[in-house]
Write a structure and sequence with these properties.
Blueprint: E1 2-7, H1 22-28, H2 31-37, E2 41-47, H3 65-84, E3 88-92, H4 99-107, E4 114-118, H5 139-143, E5 169-174, H6 179-188, E6 191-194, H7 195-201, H8 203-214, E7 222-227, H9 249-262, E8 265-271, H10 281-298
Parallel strand pairs: 1-2, 1-3, 3-8, 4-5, 4-7, 5-6, 7-8
The structure holds ligand X8A and manganese (II) ion (MN) (2 copies).
């Protein structure tokens, strides 16, 4: 595996500071050394520098829209470059609004990509349906073609062209979905495995059905967007929007082992690690270590040795 790492210390998709410390916290937990230790070649492209966007007043309810749009344009260009350099791209967040740039940058180099979105949340609010105005709850609505007439024009977002269709994305781990989001998921017929489905089917069947769905017309590059809050807060408490009843550590790692097995992983996001949301040092280290283990599982680490 050839891995290109990019850090995006960005927090403006949500209000809680600390998530911008995610990239360096994950690195300090030994990510590069451990990837090399399991035979990967690794290039760390460092962290993006996000310049201040002045007068970034809310638009209706949407908070910090210009900063989010600008940061994601920078990220999209970086991810595109990393893909052209021939790596599987690993984005270290930062909040989940960064998936806009990560997936668009990925799509610029891989036409037929599909998305596996591992998250307690659907992140599919539009600027109109959002209840909080936080853009980390909206990225998917900017990416899906079926929405194109439903997203209001916003400054900083004119560069965005949706790059996937509703059937190109599968969710795993949903357990805190807003009513408007649920309507959108059902209306667009988007495939999802909630925590109820994980309980009913078991994670092995969930992954089997996920791969059947995304590969129904043949294998294609996968973009795995992994929100650390998909995991149970007992495993990864240091995050901004924790929700009880999440994936176990084993389920979270099994997902990565299965995605790795397809041989089609082309880009990975690991987002929403926020050390300031921890109540104790152990909570920071548990969250950071789990984030590293998620990445190692994507690049060939198997528990049998
Ligand atoms: C479920 N939608 C939320 C959370 C988005 C989480 C983003 B992620 O990247 O961490 O997944 C929450 C909306 N609720 C907040 C509490 C009151 C009811 C609405 C939103 O702000 O849109
Ligand atoms: Mn998310
Ligand atoms: Mn989430």
């Amino acid at each position: 595996h050839s891995v290109g790492i990019i850090g995006a210390p960005f927090w403006k998709g949500q209000p809680k500071d600390g998530v911008e410390k995610g990239p360096d916290l994950i690195r300090s937990t030994g990510l590069v050394e451990k990837l090399k230790g399991q035979g990967c070649s690794v290039r760390d492209y460092g962290n993006l520098k996000f310049e201040h966007v002045p007068d970034d007043q809310p638009i209706e309810k949407v908070q910090r829209p210009r900063s989010v749009g600008h940061a994601n344009k920078q990220l999209a260009d970086a991810v595109h470059m990393i893909k052209k350099d021939g790596h599987t791209c690993v984005l270290l967040g930062g909040d989940h609004s960064l998936a806009i740039g990560s997936i668009l940058g990925h799509a610029a180099s891989q036409k037929e990509l599909c998305v596996v979105w591992v998250d307690a949340h659907a992140d599919i609010n539009t600027p109109t349906t959002t209840l909080t105005g936080n853009m980390h709850g909206q990225p998917v609505s900017f990416l899906i073609r079926e929405f194109h007439s439903k997203i209001p024009v916003m400054p900083g977002f004119s560069w965005i062209k949706p790059c996937i269709s509703a059937q190109d994305i599968v969710y795993i781990g949903l357990r805190d979905v807003d009513p408007a989001e649920h309507y959108i998921l059902k209306h667009l017929g988007i495939k999802f495995f909630s925590m109820t489905d994980v309980d009913r089917l078991g994670i092995a069947k969930v992954m089997e059905e996920t791969c059947d769905h995304i590969f129904s017309k043949g294998k294609r590059p996968i973009h795995l967007s992994y929100d650390i809050d998909a995991l149970d807060p007992s495993v990864s408490p240091a995050t901004g929007t924790p929700v009880m009843g999440g994936l176990t550590y084993r389920e979270g790692i099994y997902i990565t082992e299965q995605i790795c097995q397809t041989g089609m992983l082309s880009a990975l996001d690991v987002v929403e690690v926020n050390p300031k949301m921890a109540r104790a040092e152990e909570e920071i280290s548990s969250t950071a270590k789990t984030a590293v283990d998620v990445i190692l599982g994507c690049f060939g680490r198997v528990r049998e040795g």
